[in-house]
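Example for tutorial group B:
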């Protein structure tokens, strides 16, 4: 249904704010008795007011029949309608404006149309605050150039009959839409993702988080492979040093046995007078033994260093994993705003003129009343 401004309080007799009790009618207005015809409400006439042909007029078709209008009135007031008369359509004049806006944006690959509608009771103010009078878009198929025969017509303010003012208002409306009706959509520049204008924000956020997880996992795979290679290299070196260490231990044990054997021979050699040869063998045996001991110490140091290097690599890997997770968590929740502004040439004013809003005029419980004939949601 169309959202429109209801008549101001007191502008029509018997509005829903009034009670069902008999009330003193406004000056010049009759309150019909049961079975009598209903007189026209104040400010309304039975013939269509003469309007210049260059002033567009739009008659909105009624969406609610008179019985449903009464039912809605009963629901709003909590009162029961009795003794109603036949309802008559009564049109109330307003300024009706509606524009179609085509948005095109290569970044989002978006090509969408939005419709904006506005309804003002009169144009007595010099500056129109359009945003205060926006309504739901009107289906142009529900707009007619002719009224329903036998209807009533409200007085038309002179401000609504100046076609030159409508020409100015067209330009104002286009300027207002151009400057205030941009489409704003979330985007992530890091992930090169932009939501489409019709996409639900929760859906875009879910896609964003999924993409962020996939990018994080890809970087995590690269990082893990890098450190696996580094740690494997340390493990390989460590395994080689372990093998060398075991060999050096065996070699040192062999040199120790040889040293003991050589020392025993040396005692006999010295007793037999072979001094130079014996001392030479002892010295050479000790040299081999000390060399093996030195090699073993170096290997032990290398093995200890390898353990430290491995621990450092694991610590660095864990730190970088944490940084990577924090980075992509920020990316998944960080959004910027992408603004789609229409071109003025793509703003088309479809309606700009007098909009005749239908009401049902009838007597309920002896009171004349105006009830909306179109939806108000």
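The residue assignment follows.
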């Amino acid at each position: 249904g169309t959202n429109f401004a209801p008549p101001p309080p007191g502008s029509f007799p018997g509005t829903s704010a009034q009670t069902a009790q008999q009330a003193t009618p406004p000056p010049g207005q009759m309150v019909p008795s049961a079975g009598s015809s209903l007189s026209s409400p104040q400010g309304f006439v039975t013939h269509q007011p003469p309007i210049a042909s260059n002033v567009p007029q739009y008659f909105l078709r009624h969406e609610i029949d008179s019985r449903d209008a009464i039912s809605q009135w009963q629901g709003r007031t909590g009162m029961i309608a009795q003794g109603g008369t036949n309802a008559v359509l009564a049109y109330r004049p307003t300024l009706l404006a509606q524009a179609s806006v085509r948005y095109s944006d290569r970044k989002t690959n978006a090509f969408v149309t939005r419709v904006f509608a506005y309804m003002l009771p009169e144009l007595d103010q010099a500056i129109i605050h359009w945003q205060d009078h926006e309504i739901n878009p009107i289906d142009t198929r529900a707009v007619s150039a002719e009224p329903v025969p036998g209807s009533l017509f409200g007085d038309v303010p002179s401000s609504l009959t100046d076609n030159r003012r409508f020409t100015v208002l067209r330009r104002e409306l286009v300027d207002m839409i151009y400057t205030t009706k941009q489409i704003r959509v979330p985007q992530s520049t890091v992930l090169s993702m932009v939501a489409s204008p019709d996409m639900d924000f929760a859906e875009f956020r879910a896609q964003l988080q999924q993409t962020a997880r996939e990018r994080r996992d890809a970087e995590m795979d690269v990082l893990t492979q890098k450190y696996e290679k580094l740690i494997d290299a340390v493990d390989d070196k460590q395994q080689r040093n372990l093998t060398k260490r075991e060999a050096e231990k065996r070699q040192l044990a062999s040199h120790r046995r040889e040293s003991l054997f050589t020392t025993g021979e040396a005692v006999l050699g010295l007793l037999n007078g072979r001094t130079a040869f014996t001392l030479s063998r002892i010295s050479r045996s000790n040299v081999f033994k000390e060399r093996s001991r030195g090699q073993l110490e170096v290997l032990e140091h290398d093995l200890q260093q390898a353990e430290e290097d491995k621990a450092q690599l694991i610590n660095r890997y864990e730190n970088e994993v944490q940084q990577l997770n924090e980075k992509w968590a920020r990316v998944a929740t960080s959004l910027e705003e992408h603004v789609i502004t229409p071109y003025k040439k793509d703003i088309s004013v479809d309606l700009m003129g007098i909009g005749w809003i239908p009401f049902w005029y009838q007597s309920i419980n002896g009171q004349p009343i105006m009830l909306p004939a179109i939806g108000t949601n």
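The CA atoms of residues 123 and 159 lie 5 Å apart. Compare this with the pattern of hydrophobic and polar residues in the output above.
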